[in-house]
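Weekly modeling sync, notes
Attendees: AB, CL, MP (scribe)

Item 1: holo prediction request
CL wants a bound-state model with shikimate-3-phosphate before deciding which constructs to order. AB pointed out that an apo prediction alone won't tell us much about the pocket. Agreed to run with the ligand included and paste results into these notes for async review.

Input as submitted:
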Amino acid sequence: MNIVLLGFMGTGKSSVGERLAKRLGMRYLDMDEVIEEEEGITVREIFERYGEPYFRDKESEICRRISTLDGYVISTGGGVVLREENMDCLRKNGLLISLTARPEVIYKRIHKDKTRPLLQGNPIKRIRELLTFREPYYRKADLLVDTSSLSIQEVVERITMYIIEEMGYGDHKG
Ligand code: S3P
């Protein structure tokens, strides 16, 4: 079984994912990092050089490979939810957890970061538009955690409690 973190940019998937993996004694994998390693350039450069469809195809390919893994906490890119085939692969052996946050909170967390290709121009407007469109997709997860006013550690604990209670997993760290 894997634990798959879904959610918009800036909801905390990578920070939470790394700590959650440690907390549960699982391995950690960041999908965007895998893509960057395999392509040898950043996500932003992939968008610029080859366009978004190329990136999305690469993302889908990683999802197919992930469905053969076991025992991983996986942080996804914010747009992974848009393709049904991705969700089918991730759900095959994964518990899906969506991290959410209010648009203003997302803006505050990421407005200084210029690495995100989809937020060029007017970021708060783009965040609102994309969030409105994507919300139903993020809602397909097994659990939603609003991270707007929680610390990374609090999010990790909330997810850990859910896994212990709902899935009947043992708590490896006592
Ligand atoms: C994207 C989110 C990014 C990255 C790419 C596209 C999106 O990942 O995959 O820029 O469509 O929301 P993060 O959510 O980790 O920033």
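Recorded for review: The pocket of shikimate-3-phosphate is lined by residues 9, 13, 32, 43, 77-79, 116-118 (CB under 6 Å).
Action items: CL to compare against the apo run; MP to circulate these notes.
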